[in-house]
Amino acid sequence: MSFRTEADCVGEGRTREARRLAAHSDWAATPLGPRSQWAPQLEAAWEIALECPLPVALLCGADFTMLYNDAFRDLLGSKHPSAFGQSARKVVAEIWDDPKVGPLLERAYSEAEAFLDEGTELRLARGRATDEDAGTGLREKPEDGTDVGYYLRSGSPVLAEDGSVLAVLHVIVETTSAIGRARAVAKLAALLAVAVTVDDVCKVVLRQAMVAFDGLSVSICLPSPGPASWRMARRHRIEQLSPDEERLPLIWSELGEEMTSLIALAISRGEPYLSENGEIVAVPFRAGGGGQSALVIQREAAPIPHDVVAVLAPFRDLVGDALGRAVVYDAERITAELLQRTLLPPNLPQSDAISIAARYEPVSEGTVAGGDFYDSFFLPDGRLAMVIGDVVGRGVMAATVMGQVRAAVRGAALTNSEPASVMNALDRVVWDLDALWPVSMPLGTPRARPGMAFGGELFVTMLYGTVDPETGEVVLASAGHPLPALLFGLASRAEGAPRGELLTMPVGPPLGIEGVRPAHHLTLGVGDMLVGFTDGLLERRGEAFDEGEARLLDVVADMPPGSPRSVAQYIMDSMLQTSGQEDDCAVLAVGRSPEGHRRAAIVVPPMPESVRAARDWAREQLVDWRVGDGDQHTIVTGISELITNAVLHAGTESHLTMDLDTGILAVTVADSGNRGEPLLTGADTMAVRGRGLSLVRAIADSFGAHRTSAGTTVWFEVAVELVAVPVSGRTGWPGVA
């Protein structure tokens, strides 16, 4: 007695349809003739094709009439089963003239010459039939359903007793997935070569691992900087991220016990862990710095192909090396950025009459601190001092000098606030600093690096001025600094002023070079704004400086009305998007507020219940300010999202401020936390990062976020309409007859 194994049953099932088609086809109507007249060698070849587990087609006679096994039908798509018994010339008409298809098969038939083709790229049409082929399900030329695949092919002539060729036994193995995996690894290497941060590296790994390992989801797991031992970022195959979402930082969550145990097992073995059903692949790797990390791929339950296992090792090595470099880069970048931002003021002064805001954007390449700086402070007589400048050079020395110069500006201005006095005092500071550095660290010494000393070439450009909040009178002086822009408000434009222009004023030599820096006087009207900036905003390699000035004026001409905060953000974003960024840059905007400017602020504790309290507070203020119901809903929704974001990611108290100014309500939420490593406990890892902020961006007229030495500030603005209220028995505006 014999037993039938499971493999026997599977094999019988695999060949059942092909046998049935062959048995019920009208072969007399084909060039092959009746089945009873087939040569024994042809019958034997057909039996071999039926039993072979690989895709096999038997192409018979000079017409290449197709018989194929069940494994072959997947290559044909919707052409099956109508292709059975048809001429191969018609079945694959779209590729028959390819030198590696029709001519190769015809030579095998005519010259009894076997062939092996180890790598063919073919574009097969596997979609719907054309109208003329509706009866057979075939088409002569592909219209849709066409895809590119890679195939390993062999052709063996089937000979009759007299040596003539009866057919060609054509074996085809699709290698598309294997080649795709190899290409994914090659693309991984290319993308990792330009990915510099940990976040960039992880995004590349998640995308390419999805392709290389047929992942339903891919998780990259790194040691956690928080109380948890591991943190995880995940990408799902079903996620379709927009370009804006791709640029957002990854969202990290804590690992569950099951995932933690799985990673621990893989790390203890020192080799990839593959589950028995092929559903889970865990790949441990060691980053260049020595830290253990892991990649976990969830697949459909199926045996893991050998080519998947083959690419695990190179994939692991590439990721480990890239992460090692990225960890070092991030540490240096964070240190440089922290140094830079610590030397800048965490907050700028505000008043009912004057609003001021600044933006600083470090260059995206490198980890070196820069010398751009800005500041603003009230003088003893009530005037507002403003300063923006740039220490020539980059590196720790430039940043250190920048901090000392900024501190010296305050000391000099509080003694004598006149521009000439302040700049003369700063000349002496710069001369002393220039003399100090070469003595302590001259260039050419073993410890010296470019940018660590100035060798008599230290100088600083700076724009300094004072503003009288009551009258709008401004006194400005420039020490070699780019000319500021003057933006005109609605009242000035009603009298014929342009949207904006570059200020015409004398420019003296940079600090550290003797010379006269004449003071320039102007008056800011209600709603007018003065915008200073560093040269990194304008200068681009290969173009004249005035081209950058023209580009700035074009940006200003199209700029919507807004507060100094939105204006600084708009100018920075627009200038960098249109021409890129080659150096650090800063923008400082000072505006004169009209009468009726209102401000309210509270401190929000880092607790979930604070979100509702903040909403209630905001709604009460908006009602008091006569903001309409629809605008109230928009503003309160935005506040809710920003406070929730701060509670989740910052973990510190937040300062919530609302400003109402000429029909524009600005909301600011500033925290003192570090958002660089967002870590959510119990978060849904299917969520796409930044949905809350995306909502705020969608409902607001202006939106922005930036980091300072004190933490992160997120803000938005909404143009509002004030509602009419009863006044003395009639409808009108409060305080208006």
From TrEMBL:
Gene Ontology molecular-function annotations: phosphatase activity
Lineage of producing organism: Bacteria, Bacillati, Actinomycetota, Actinomycetes, Micrococcales
Protein name (record): PPM-type phosphatase domain-containing protein
Record has Isomerase as a keyword: no
Alphabetical list of InterPro entries matching this protein: Bact_Sigma-Reg, HATPase_C_sf, HATPase_dom, PPM-type-like_dom_sf, PPM-type_phosphatase-like_dom
Alphabetical list of SUPFAM superfamilies matching this protein: ATPase domain of HSP90 chaperone/DNA topoisomerase II/histidine kinase
Domain PPM-type phosphatase as annotated: residue spans: 351-592
Keywords from the named record: Hydrolase
Domain of life: Bacteria
